[in-house]
C-alpha cells in the first residue's frame, strides 16, 4: 500500500491557520509552509520580540481574534508539520519547491490549500518611489510589529478602509498625522449605510475612526485627484487637486494604498484557471464558494484569491479544508460547511458595499504623466509603455512585458501589473478584462544562486 | 536625517552594526529596514537611475529593499532580523 | 463572414525567420501576409537565450551565419532598434583536455570561414577573463560573436514588416491549406482566407506538420531549453559564454542581468507549453555560481523555457519543397536559429523571387529525409494552438 502524501497549506494567516485546524480535527497531518517567522499572516502578524505593548494596543478591537488564532495554531503542535520562514517558490502537479534556510526542499503533496493572502494595491503617482513613501500596510507594519513611525509628520492617502484605520492608529500612537487624502468622493460613503445592516460593528468603527481623526484636528479631504508626492531625495510634501483647486501640504512621509490585491502567483503555477473579477478589477483564480479551484485537489482560501478580509479568510480556510476532506472521501461536517458558506456569502455582500464606498480610482493610471515610473524595479515609465504599445502594436499584457520589461523585475509585476494593464487598455481602447494578465514564473520571489538542492523529503 | 521614529522598544538591548562604514546602533527586535531607517533615509539606490529607495511594502513583496552585507551576501532588509556586527552596504550594486 | 486576402507570398509563422523574410520580401516590393497563430516573436524567437553565435556551428551553416553576421550590427537601419545587440565576443570553455582538443579541432576545421577563432590556454584565460572559476582548462574565443535581446529582435522585425506594408495577422492560426489551381488557399483563424501563389513554411517547431501535409515528413522532435535570469548586477561577465559539450551558457546584458541556460525541461500536458522544473532551475543556478564566483551572491528572479524544433542532424530544413511547387520550407533550427534567422529571411526572399539563393543551402534540403518518407507519420496540426483554450483546463494533480 502506498501512503498518500500529506496535504500542503501555503500561508499561516487566518485562512491557512483555520484550514490547518480543520484538517487536524479530521486526523490529517498537513504541512504548513509560511514565509513569516510566526503565524498570523498580515493582520495578526506577530512582533519579532515582545515590546511591552499589549495585544489590545497592537490589534485594537481585533485583539481577541488575534489571540485566539495564535493560541489555536500553537495548539496544533505535534499534529502538523510547520515550516516558518520558508518560501514556496515553485509548484505544480503534486510537487512543491520550498526554500528554507539556504536549502531547497522538494515536497510531494496530495491536496493543496493556497492561503497566500494579499498585499497593498497601488497605482503609480509622481514621487511614489521616494524614500518616505510606504504602502498603508507597510506603514502599519512599521508601527505594529516594529514599533516605529514612518516619519514625524505623515500624510495618509488613497482609498479603502485601511486608509482610515492606519491613520487612526498613527494618531493614537501620538504621531503627527498631517492629513488624510481620500481618492474617493464623500458622496460614495453613503453606500456605507447599506453596510450597516450587514456589519454594523465594522461600519460604526470606521465612522468612529474618521470622527476621532477630525476631532483631533486631522483634515480629511475627499475626491482627491492628481495626487503627487514631492521631494528630491526624500519626501518633503504632497500636492493634489480638489474641486479644481491646487492644494499642497508639507510632510516627511506618506502612507499610500488603494485597498489590496491578491497574491495569485502560486495558483497560476498550480495551473488554476483565471477569470476577470469586476469587484477586485483583477484577474483572479476561479474558486467556488467551497474554495475549490479549476484544478482537482487545489483549493483557494482567503485574500489570495479575491479580497474579502480577515474574518472571511478564517471561514474560507476552514471551508476549503472541508472540501479537501470531502474530496478525499473522508467524513466532514456538511452542516458546518453550509453555515460557513452562508457567512461567506454575507461577507461578500458587505464587500460589495465597501467597494462602492471606496471605488478604486483606476483612471489615475490612465491619466498618469509620461515621465512617471510605473515599474519600480526596472524603472519603466508610463511614456515607455505607451510608446511600446504603439511601436510594437501590442494588445496583450505579456507582449507588453516582452517589449517594455514591465513586470520583469524583482517583484514580478506585483506592484506594476495592474497599472500597466490599465494603461494598455486605455491605449488600445479595449476593456481592462481583455488585455490578459501577467503570467507567473518561478521563482515567485528572488532565490539565491547557491540554494542547495536536497533530495525529496520523505513526507509522512 | 533618519526616516523612522521609534515609539516602542527604545530601551531594548542595543545592537551595533555599520552602515556604509558608519557605526550605528539598532535595537533588539529590529529588522534591517528598521535599523537602517532609524539611522538614514535610504536603504539602497536604484541600479538604473541611481535614485535612493527606502523600501515600500515592508512585507517582502515589493523587493525594493535589498541590501548587501559585508560578506557579499544579499538580503531583503524588511524581512531580515538585525544581527550584531552586520556590515550593511546601501549603495553597492548586487554583484560582489 | 470570412475575409479574403490576395498576396504574392503567405508566410506561416512570425518568428524571426518568418518576420525577417516578410521584411525582405516587402523590400523587393512583393505583397506579403505574415500569419501567426499567436503573436509574432512570442515563441522560440522571442524567448531564446539570445546568443548571437557562429562559433560551434557545423561548417555547412557558416556561409549562412556569415550572411546573418553582416546584418546584426545594422539592425537599427533595418528595423529601427538595435535589439540590444552587443558584439561582445563568444568564449567557449573547455572543462578538460579532451574538450580542449575538440575546440582545437573545430578551429582547424573552420579556419577558412573567417571566424577569427583564438585558442586560449589556462593562464591567459585567467588573466583576460578573471571572472572565471578555476576549473577551466582553456577556451576558444570568437571576437565577432555576441548576444542580443530576443524579446525585442523578433517583435522588432515583425513590427518593421508591418510598417513596411506587410499584412501581419496575429492570433490567426493557419488551420488548413488547400491547392487552388497553381496556388494555395490558407484558412487563417476564423476570419480570413489567404490566396497566394507562394507559401513560406516558417512555423518553427510546428513546421513539420505543414511539411507532412504535403507528403514530406520530417523527423522533428521538440525540445524545451530553459533559462534563469538574475537581478541586475554590477558587470561580471564581459563576454557571451558557452561550454564545449554543453551544460551551461551565460551572458550579462547591459542593464546588468545575467542570463543562464544549459538545461532542458519536459513539456506540460499540452506539448506547446513547458515550464522549468525546480530542479532544472537549481542545477543551472548552482552550476553558474560554481563557474563564475562573482555570481555567488546573486539572486535569480525569473525562469522560463521555450519550444524548439529539433532535427537529429542538428541542421534546419531550408529550401523549396520536394513535392509541391510554390512551397518553401524554413524550420527546425535545432536550438540555434536565432543568430542565422535574419540571414535565412534574406535567403527565403531570394528563393521566392529568383528560385535560388546566392548563399549555399544544399545541406538543408528537405529531400535529405526522402528515405524516411516511406514511414508515414500520422500527425495533425495539433500544435497550431487552434483548439487551445485561453486558460489551462482542469488537470489532475
Ligand atoms: C500589510 C497589510 C496590513 C493589513 N492590515 C489589516 C488591518 O489592520 N485590519 C484588517 O481588517 N485587515 C488588514 N489587512 C487585510 C488582512 O490582512 C487580510 O484580510 C487577511 O490577513 C487575510 O488573511 P489570509 O489568511 O488570506 O492572508 P494573510 O494574512 O496575508 O496570510 C498569508 C500568508 O501566506 C504567506 N505566503 C504567501 N505566499 C507565500 C509563499 N509563496 N510561500 C510561503 N508563504 C507564503 C504570507 O507570508 C502570509 O503569512 C491587511 C493586509 C495587509 C497586506
Ligand atoms: C529557450 C531557447 C533558447 C535558445 N537559445 C538560442 C540561442 O542562444 N542562439 C540561437 O541561435 N538560437 C537559440 N535558440 C533557437 C532559436 O530560438 C530558434 O531556432 C529560432 O528562434 C527559430 O525561429 P523560427 O522563426 O523558426 O521559430 P519560432 O520563433 O518558434 O516561430 C515559429 C512561429 O510559427 C507560429 N506557428 C506555429 N504553427 C502555426 C500555425 N498553424 N499557423 C500560424 N503560425 C503558426 C508560432 O506561433 C511561432 O510564432 C533557442 C531556442 C529556445 C527555445
Ligand atoms: S520593503 Fe517591500 S520587500 Fe522590503
From TrEMBL, chain A:
Q: Does the keyword Oxidoreductase apply?
A: yes
Any one GO MF term held by the record is: oxidoreductase activity
* Keyword tRNA-binding listed: no
- Species of provenance: Paramesorhizobium deserti
Alphabetical list of PANTHER family matching this protein? ANAEROBIC GLYCEROL-3-PHOSPHATE DEHYDROGENASE SUBUNIT B
> FAD/NAD(P)-binding domain: which residues?
8-313
Q: Which UniProt keywords apply?
A: Oxidoreductase
All copies of the SoxA A3 domain together span 374-450
Entry-linked InterPro entries: BFD-like_2Fe2S-bd_dom_sf, FAD/NAD-bd_sf, FAD/NAD-binding_dom, Metab_Enz_Cyan_OpOx_G3PDH, Opine_Oxase_asu/HCN_bsu, SoxA_A3
- Domain of life of the native organism: Bacteria
Protein known as? FAD/NAD(P)-binding oxidoreductase
Automatic annotation (TrEMBL), chain B:
Q: Name one Pfam family in it.
A: Fer2_4
GO MF terms here are: iron-sulfur cluster binding; oxidoreductase activity
Which InterPro entries does this one have? 2Fe-2S-bd_N, 2Fe-2S_ferredoxin-like_sf
Q: Please, which domain of life does this record's source organism belong to?
A: Bacteria
Arranged from A to Z, the UniProt key words for this protein are: Oxidoreductase
What is the name listed in the Swiss-Prot or TrEMBL entry for this protein? Ferredoxin
Please report the organism this UniProt entry assigns to the protein.
Answer: Paramesorhizobium deserti
Automatic annotation (TrEMBL), chain C:
A GO MF annotation of the entry reads: oxidoreductase activity
Q: Which domain of life is it from?
A: Bacteria
Classification via Pfam families: DAO
Identify one Gene Ontology CC term for this UniProt entry.
cytoplasm
Answer whether the UniProt record assigns the keyword Transcription to this protein: no
Which residue numbers delimit the FAD dependent oxidoreductase domain?
8-351
Q: Which UniProt keywords apply?
A: Oxidoreductase
Under Gene3D superfamilies, the record lists: D-Amino Acid Oxidase, subunit A, domain 2, FAD/NAD(P)-binding domain
Task: Report the protein name in the record.
Answer: FAD-dependent oxidoreductase
The organism of origin for this protein = Paramesorhizobium deserti
Amino acid at each position: 500500500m502506498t501512503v498518500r502524501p500529506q496535504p500542503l497549506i501555503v500561508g499561516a494567516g487566518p485562512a491557512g491557520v483555520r484550514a490547518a485546524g480543520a484538517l487536524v480535527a479530521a486526523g490529517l497531518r498537513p504541512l504548513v509552509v509560511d514565509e513569516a517567522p510566526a503565524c498570523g499572516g498580515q493582520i495578526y502578524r506577530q512582533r519579532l520580540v515582545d515590546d511591552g505593548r499589549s495585544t489590545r494596543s497592537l490589534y485594537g478591537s481585533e485583539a481577541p481574534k488575534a489571540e485566539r488564532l495564535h493560541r489555536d495554531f500553537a495548539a496544533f503542535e505535534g499534529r502538523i508539520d510547520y515550516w516558518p520562514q520558508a518560501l514556496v517558490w515553485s509548484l505544480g502537479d503534486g510537487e512543491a519547491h520550498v526554500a528554507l534556510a539556504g536549502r531547497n526542499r522538494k515536497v510531494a503533496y496530495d491536496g493543496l490549500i493556497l492561503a497566500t493572502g494579499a498585499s497593498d494595491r497601488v497605482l503609480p503617482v509622481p514621487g511614489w518611489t521616494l524614500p518616505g513613501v510606504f504602502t498603508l500596510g507597510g506603514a502599519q507594519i512599521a508601527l505594529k510589529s516594529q514599533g516605529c513611525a514612518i516619519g514625524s509628520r505623515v500624510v495618509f492617502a488613497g482609498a479603502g478602509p485601511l486608509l482610515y484605520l492606519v491613520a487612526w492608529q498613527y494618531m493614537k500612537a501620538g504621531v503627527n498625522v498631517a492629513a488624510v487624502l481620500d481618492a474617493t468622493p464623500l458622496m460614495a460613503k453613503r453606500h456605507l449605510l447599506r453596510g450597516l445592516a450587514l456589519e454594523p460593528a465594522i461600519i460604526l468603527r470606521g465612522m468612529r475612526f474618521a470622527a476621532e481623526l477630525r476631532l483631533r484636528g486631522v483634515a480629511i479631504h475627499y475626491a482627491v485627484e492628481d495626487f503627487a508626492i514631492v521631494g528630491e531625495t526624500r519626501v518633503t510634501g504632497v500636492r493634489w487637486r480638489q474641486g479644481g483647486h491646487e492644494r499642497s501640504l508639507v510632510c516627511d512621509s506618506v502612507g499610500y494604498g488603494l485597498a489590496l490585491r491578491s497574491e495569485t502567483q502560486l495558483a497560476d503555477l498550480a495551473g488554476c484557471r483565471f477569470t476577470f473579477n469586476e469587484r477586485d478589477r483583477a484577474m483572479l483564480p476561479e474558486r467556488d464558494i467551497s474554495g475549490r479551484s479549476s484544478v482537482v485537489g487545489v483549493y483557494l482560501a482567503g485574500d489570495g484569491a479575491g479580497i474579502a478580509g480577515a474574518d472571511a479568510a478564517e471561514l474560507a480556510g476552514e471551508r476549503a479544508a472541508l472540501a479537501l476532506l470531502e474530496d478525499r472521501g473522508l467524513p466532514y461536517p456538511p452542516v458546518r460547511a453550509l453555515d460557513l458558506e452562508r457567512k461567506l456569502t454575507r461577507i461578500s455582500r458587505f464587500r460589495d458595499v465597501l467597494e462602492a464606498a471606496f471605488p478604486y480610482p483606476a483612471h489615475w493610471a490612465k491619466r498618469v504623466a509620461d515621465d512617471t515610473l510605473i515599474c519600480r524595479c526596472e524603472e519603466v515609465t508610463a511614456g515607455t509603455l505607451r510608446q511600446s504599445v504603439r511601436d510594437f502594436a501590442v494588445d496583450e499584457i505579456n507582449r507588453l512585458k516582452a517589449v517594455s520589461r514591465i513586470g520583469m523585475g524583482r517583484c514580478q509585476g506585483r506592484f506594476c501589473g495592474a497599472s500597466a494593464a490599465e494603461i494598455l487598455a486605455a491605449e488600445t481602447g479595449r476593456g481592462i478584462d481583455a488585455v490578459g494578465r501577467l503570467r507567473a514564473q518561478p521563482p515567485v520571489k528572488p532565490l539565491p544562486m547557491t540554494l542547495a538542492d536536497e533530495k525529496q523529503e520523505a513526507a509522512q | 536625517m533618519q526616516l523612522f521614529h521609534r515609539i516602542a522598544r527604545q530601551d531594548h538591548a542595543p545592537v551595533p552594526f555599520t552602515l556604509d562604514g558608519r557605526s550605528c546602533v539598532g535595537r533588539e527586535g529590529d529588522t534591517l529596514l528598521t535599523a537602517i531607517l532609524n539611522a538614514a533615509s535610504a536603504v539602497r539606490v536604484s541600479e538604473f537611475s541611481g535614485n535612493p529607495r527606502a523600501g515600500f511594502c515592508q512585507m517582502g513583496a515589493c523587493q525594493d529593499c535589498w541590501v548587501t552585507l559585508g560578506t557579499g551576501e544579499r538580503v531583503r532588509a524588511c524581512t531580515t532580523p538585525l544581527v550584531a556586527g552586520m556590515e550593511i552596504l546601501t549603495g553597492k550594486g548586487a554583484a560582489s | 463572414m470570412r475575409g479574403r486576402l490576395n498576396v504574392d507570398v503567405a508566410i506561416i509563422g512570425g518568428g524571426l525567420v518568418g518576420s525577417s523574410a516578410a521584411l525582405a520580401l516587402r523590400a523587393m516590393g512583393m505583397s506579403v501576409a505574415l500569419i501567426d497563430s499567436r503573436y509574432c516573436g512570442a515563441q522560440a524567437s522571442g524567448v531564446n537565450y539570445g546568443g548571437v553565435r557562429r562559433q560551434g556551428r557545423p561548417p555547412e551553416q557558416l556561409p549562412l551565419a556569415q550572411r546573418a553576421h553582416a546584418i546584426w550590427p545594422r539592425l537599427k537601419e533595418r528595423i529601427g532598434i538595435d535589439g540590444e545587440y552587443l558584439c561582445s565576443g563568444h568564449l567557449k570553455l573547455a572543462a578538460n583536455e579532451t574538450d580542449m582538443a575538440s575546440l582545437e579541432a573545430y578551429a582547424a576545421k573552420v579556419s577558412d570561414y573567417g571566424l577569427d577563432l583564438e585558442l586560449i590556454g589556462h593562464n591567459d584565460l585567467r588573466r583576460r577573463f578573471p571572472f572565471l572559476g578555476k576549473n577551466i582548462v582553456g577556451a576558444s574565443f570568437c571576437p565577432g560573436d555576441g548576444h542580443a535581446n530576443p524579446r525585442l529582435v523578433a517583435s522588432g522585425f515583425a513590427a518593421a514588416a508591418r510598417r513596411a506594408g506587410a499584412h501581419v495577422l496575429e492570433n490567426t492560426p493557419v488551420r488548413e491549406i488547400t491547392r487552388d489551381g497553381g496556388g494555395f488557399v490558407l484558412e487563417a483563424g476564423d476570419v480570413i482566407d489567404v490566396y497566394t501563389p507562394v507559401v513560406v513554411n516558417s512555423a518553427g517547431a510546428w513546421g513539420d506538420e505543414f511539411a507532412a501535409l504535403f507528403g514530406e515528413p520530417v523527423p522533428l522532435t521538440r525540445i524545451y531549453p530553459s533559462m534563469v535570469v538574475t537581478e541586475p548586477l554590477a558587470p561580471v561577465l564581459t563576454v557571451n559564454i558557452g561550454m564545449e559539450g554543453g551544460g551551461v551558457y551565460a551572458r550579462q546584458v547591459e542593464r546588468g542581468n545575467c542570463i543562464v541556460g544549459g538545461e532542458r525541461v519536459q513539456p506540460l500536458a499540452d506539448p506547446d507549453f513547458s515550464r522549468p522544473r525546480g530542479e532544472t532551475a537549481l542545477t543551472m543556478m548552482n552550476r553558474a555560481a560554481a563557474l563564475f564566483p562573482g555570481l555567488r551572491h546573486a539572486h535569480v528572479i525569473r525562469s522560463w523555457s521555450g519550444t524548439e524544433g529539433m532535427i537529429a542532424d542538428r541542421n534546419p530544413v531550408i529550401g523549396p519543397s520536394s513535392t509541391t511547387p510554390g512551397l518553401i520550407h524554413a524550420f527546425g533550427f535545432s536550438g540555434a536559429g536565432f543568430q542565422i534567422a535574419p540571414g535565412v529571411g534574406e535567403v527565403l526572399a531570394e528563393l521566392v523571387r529568383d528560385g535560388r539563393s546566392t548563399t549555399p543551402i544544399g545541406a538543408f534540403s528537405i529531400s535529405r529525409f526522402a528515405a524516411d518518407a516511406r514511414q508515414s507519420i500520422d500527425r495533425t496540426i495539433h500544435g497550431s494552438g487552434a483548439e487551445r483554450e485561453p486558460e489551462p483546463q482542469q488537470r489532475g494533480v
